[in-house]
Design a protein that fits this description.
Structural class: alpha+beta
CATH class of the domain at 5-65 and 89-173 and 265-348: Alpha Beta
Domain FAD-binding: 2-337
Number of strands: 19
Shape: globular
Protein name: p-hydroxybenzoate 3-monooxygenase
CATH superfamily of the domain at 5-65 and 89-173 and 265-348: FAD/NAD(P)-binding domain
Largest sheet: 8 strands, mixed
GO molecular function, one term: 4-hydroxybenzoate 3-monooxygenase activity
InterPro entries: FAD-bd (IPR002938), FAD/NAD-bd_sf (IPR036188), RIFMO-like (IPR050641)
Strand content: 25-35%
Enzyme class: oxidoreductase
Helix content: 25-40%
C-alpha cells in the first residue's frame, strides 16, 4: 500500500526473490515521479539500496556532501563532518529515487502496480488471509485482492494506520509549536553545502537540490498562509537570516513552490497488527528538522522486505517477529536528535534571553569541543544508530 520510497523498496525486494507483489497507489505515476520531497540520503541507506540493486542511477548522479555550515551572530562556521567520520551524505531528490524504484519494480522486475486507485480498504488483518479492496480507476470495478501479508506504506493520511485496532494503538505525538515555510527556488545554490541560519527573527535553511533548483526553509507561525509570503518578503527574510560578514548575498530566483509545514512528530506503536505491517510515515513521522524521514522509511523497508522474503521463501518468522522493535530503536534515536536540533535552530528566536543564551552555547560548543563535534556528526549522519 503506497508507492513511495518505503513501498517501492519493499516491492523490489520481494520481486528480486520472485515473490508476487501488488503495489496500490492513489496518485498517478506522473504525480509521484514529480512530487517535491526530501533529498538527503544517509550513506548507510544508500549502501542498503546498492546491496539490493536499487542505487545505480543514484550513485552516478547524486551529489556528495561532507560539510554543512551554521550561520549565527553574523558569522559563518563550517562543520566538516566528513573529515570527522569518514562518511558523507548523498543529495538525490526523492522524485528521482521514486522514478528509479518504479522503473525497477514495474518495468524491470515485472511487479504489479495500480495507480490512481480509489476507495482502498484493508480487511481481516487478524486472520491468516487478509485482503485489500479498491476501485479500479479505469473501469470503476470494485476489486478484492486476497493476500498473505499487507505492507502499510501509504503515509500519514493512508488507510492502513486507520486499520489498526484503536484499543491497541498508542500514538505518541510532539508538536513544536512552529511552522516552516518550505520553498523551492529556480536558482543555483549560494553555497557548496547545506546552510543553517540561527537568527533572532527565526530559522532559515538552504538545501541544494540540483544545479538549477534550491530548497529553502523559513521559520514562520504554525498554520501561516503561504500567500503572506510574496516573493519580495521571502527573499528579504532569507537574505537577512542567512546573511553573514564577508559573504555575497544569496542568488535569488523564481519561487516555484511555497507551502507551510507545521513541525510535529509522532510514533505509532505497535507498528504491527496481525498480518499488517506499517512502514515509513504510516508508522512514524519525524519533522524535516534533521532530514531523517526518507532515511527512516528506507530502514523500515529494508527490514520488512528482507523479513517477508525469509518468511515466504523459507518459513523463517524471526525477522517479522523482531521487525517493530528493530525499527523503533532507530525511530526514537532520530526523534531525540530532531528535538535537540530543533532547539539549536529555533532557540535564538524564542523571545527568551535564557533560551537564546543556552542555544548559542550549544552552537559554540560544536566548534570548540572535539567530543561535542564528533557526537553531533554521528547523529547527523545516522552512523550512531547501528541497529
Amino acid at each position: 500500500m503506497g508507492a513511495g520510497p518505503a513501498g517501492l523498496t519493499v516491492g523490489n525486494i520481494l520481486r528480486a526473490a520472485s515473490v508476487d507483489c501488488l503495489v496500490l497507489e492513489t496518485e498517478t505515476r506522473e504525480f509521484i515521479e514529480q512530487r517535491p520531497r526530501a533529498g538527503v540520503i544517509e550513506e548507510w541507506a544508500v549502501r542498503g539500496l546498492e546491496k539490493r540493486g536499487l542505487a545505480r542511477n543514484l550513485l552516478d548522479r547524486a551529489e556528495l556532501h561532507t560539510t554543512c555550515e551554521f550561520r549565527f551572530d553574523g558569522e559563518r562556521y563550517r562543520f566538516p563532518y566528513g573529515e570527522l567520520t569518514g562518511s558523507h551524505h548523498f543529495v538525490y531528490p526523492q522524485p528521482l529515487l521514486v522514478t528509479d524504484l518504479v522503473r525497477e519494480y514495474a518495468d524491470v522486475r515485472g511487479g504489479q502496480i495500480r495507480f490512481g486507485v480509489r476507495d482502498v480498504r484493508v480487511h481481516d488483518i487478524g486472520t491468516d488471509r487478509p485482503s485489500v479492496s479498491y476501485t479500479c480507476p479505469e473501469t470503476g470495478e470494485h476489486r478484492v485482492v486476497p493476500c498473505d501479508f499487507v505492507a502499510g506504506c501509504d503515509g500519514a493520511r493512508g488507510v492502513t494506520r486507520a486499520a489498526l485496532p484503536p484499543e491497541r494503538v498508542r500514538v505518541a505525538r510532539h508538536d513544536y509549536g512552529i511552522g516552516w515555510l518550505a520553498l523551492l527556488a529556480e536558482a543555483p545554490s549560494s553555497a557548496d553545502c547545506v546552510l543553517f541560519g540561527c537568527h533572532a527573527k527565526g530559522f532559515a535553511g538552504q538545501m541544494p537540490r540540483s544545479p538549477q533548483v534550491t530548497r529553502y526553509y523559513l521559520q514562520c507561525p504554525p498554520g501561516d498562509d503561504p500567500e503572506n509570503w510574496p516573493h519580495e518578503r521571502v527573499w528579504a527574510e532569507l537574505q537577512e537570516r542567512l546573511g553573514v560578514t564577508g559573504v555575497p548575498p544569496l542568488t535569488e530566483g523564481r519561487l516555484i513552490e511555497k507551502r507551510v509545514l507545521d513541525m510535529h512528530d509522532y510514533v505509532v506503536e505497535p507498528m504491527v497488527s496481525g498480518r499488517l505491517f506499517l512502514a515509513g510515515d504510516a508508522a512514524h513521522l519525524v519533522a524535516p528538522i534533521a532530514a531523517k524521514g526518507m532515511n527512516l522509511a528506507l530502514h523500515d523497508a529494508f527490514l520488512l522486505g528482507d523479513a517477508l522474503v525469509a518468511r515466504l521463501t523459507s518459513g523463517d518468522d524471526s525477522g517479522l517477529g523482531g521487525y517493530a522493535q528493530a525499527c523503533l530503536r532507530r525511530v526514537w534515536d532520530y526523534q531525540e536528535f530532531s528535538q535537540w536540533l530543533s532547539e539549536v535552530y529555533h532557540g535564538t528566536a524564542a523571545g527568551d534571553p535564557f533560551r537564546a543564551g543556552t542555544t548559542l552555547a550549544r552552537l559554540r560548543r560544536l566548534f570548540t569541543s572535539p567530543a561535542a563535534a564528533a557526537a553531533f556528526a554521528e547523529q547527523y549522519l545516522g552512523t550512531a544508530a547501528r541497529y
